[in-house]
Amino acid sequence: LPALLSELRKFQSETHRPPGEVPRDVLITNGGQHGIYQCVELLVEPGDPVITCEYAYTGIHSTMRPYQPEIIGIPEDKDGMIPETLDAVLGERLRRGLKMPKMMYITPTGSNPTGTVLPEDRRRLIYELACRYDFLIIEDDPYMFLNYTDRPIPSLLSMDTCGRVIRLDSVSKVVSAGLRGAWMTAPTPLLQRIELHTQAELLHSCTLAQAILHQLVQCRKSLASHLLNARDFYRARRDALHAALKPVEHLAPYNMPDAGLFFWLRVNGVDDVYNMVFQTAFQRGLMLIPGQAFLFDTNAPCPYVRLTFSKIRLEDMDKAVSNLVEIIREEQQRTLQKPKRVATEG
Fold first, then answer.
1. What is the pLDDT averaged over residues 207-220?
2. Within 13 A of 94's CA, how many CA atoms are on the CB side?
3. Which of 80, 156, 250, 257 is the most exposed place for a label (fewest CB within 10 A)?
4. Rounded Cα–Cα distance for residues 195 and 38 (Å)
5. Are strands 181-187 and 165-170 parallel, antiparallel or unpaired?
6. Beta-strand relationship, 103-106 and 80-81
7. Is the pTM of this model over 0.90?
8. Cα dist. 238→9, 224, 300, 322, 342 in Å?
9. Which residues form the Aminotransferase class I/classII large domain (predicted)?
């Protein structure tokens, strides 16, 4: 819808104030995952190296899997991806004459699964590295409005003086996932190619969804009020689960998530949580997400689990955590006997 495109252009300009020297435009996508798919289709060739965080959103992995890329997974600390490590890894690849990546995928606010928020200085360092090593940044930011730090942090798009950022926005996490309301902001030459692909793939996104999204974005005051309420709602749920998790801290340490919807726990004494998740926990009626889900190689051992606080009822949190404590202790005892995986892999 032309009216929606016009409104989103104004919205992006007001929200991010991207540098004016780069010609860029907006494209409506059928949800954020569709935007990820379009970027991968445009930029990735079979066997290409691609930069992600060490643990990354499973949707980027599923999209890239047909291309069998080389994943350059950069570790995170409590403040997200570590730029110095990224610089060292890329510098070493350059010295060795290895193929250099064309693309980085990153969720700077509420990284899924770790819940980290990249501070401004790290964002600027990562953008500088993109310029130095000549790669594009896919800035996937669906949790932008679920930032619990109360610190406004400039987006990578707002720093993009060279046309290296493709930004993906979505209302799935704060309005309705089923609406599939999302949009991409990118340098015009790249966006034109993606638009041609979109036309061939699905002609255009659902017109009814676009009309609803237009009304949402057009009413800025109402939208802002809703976004603040959504942030407060999920922050209260995060704080409630954090309080409930006190008995787990010595068994599975974690950092308080600064944004998003997840806690990321490292289970002490368990090198691989696969059996714990799909046998011990499942048999006790507790559903956990194993860290393997956020690795490109899903068969690799992993000591992490992800917990989600978006749906669990507040009154069920203490019981669920008590159950989790028993599961972890049982698995720690079993691990001492060095068992093999017995769960069926799917």
1. 89
2. 10
3. 250
4. 9
5. antiparallel
6. unpaired
7. yes
8. 33, 21, 29, 17, 33
9. 2-323
**Which structure tokens are listed for 93?**
């690849």
Q: Per this entry, what is the length of the chain? A: 346
pLDDT at 346: 46
Per-residue pLDDT tens for 78-127?
999 999 999 999 999 999 999 999 999 999 999 999 999 999 999 999 99
Cα–Cα distance measured from residue 146 to residue 261, given in angstroms and rounded to the nearest whole number: 8
Q: 10 Å Cβ neighbour count for 334?
A: 15
* DSSP states along 258-310: SBSSEEEEE-TT-S--HHIIIIIIHHTT---EEGGGGSSSTTS---EEEEE-S
List the one residue out of 181, 224, 229 whose CA is nearest residue 15. Answer: 224
Domain 2-218, classified CATH 3.40.640.10, yes or no: yes
Cβ-based burial of 299 (10 A; exposed 0-12, middle 13-18, buried ≥19): exposed
Rounded to an integer, the average pLDDT of 159-185 is 91
Is the fold of 2-218 the same as that of 224-335?
no
pLDDT tens for 121-162 read 999 999 999 999 999 999 999 999 999 998 889 999 999 999
Distance CA 263, CA 113 (A): 7
Q: Which residue has the tokens 């041609």?
A: 196
Instruction: Please state the domain extents for the chain.
Output: 2-218, 224-335
DSSP per residue, 44-110: --TT-EEEEESS--HHHHHHHGGG--EEEEE-EETTEE-HHHHHHHHHHHHHHTPPPPSEEEE--BS
pLDDT at 195 over 50: yes
Averaged confidence pLDDT in the chain: 93
* Gap between the Cα atoms of 144 and 193, Å rounded: 27
CATH topology of domain 224-335: Aspartate Aminotransferase, domain 1 (3.90.1150)
The arrangement of strands across the sheet holding 262-266 comes to: 262-266, 304-308, 289-290
Name, of 138-142, 176-180, 210-214, the range with top average pLDDT.
Answer: 138-142
Q: What is the pLDDT of residue 341?
A: 58
CA distance 152 to 143: 13
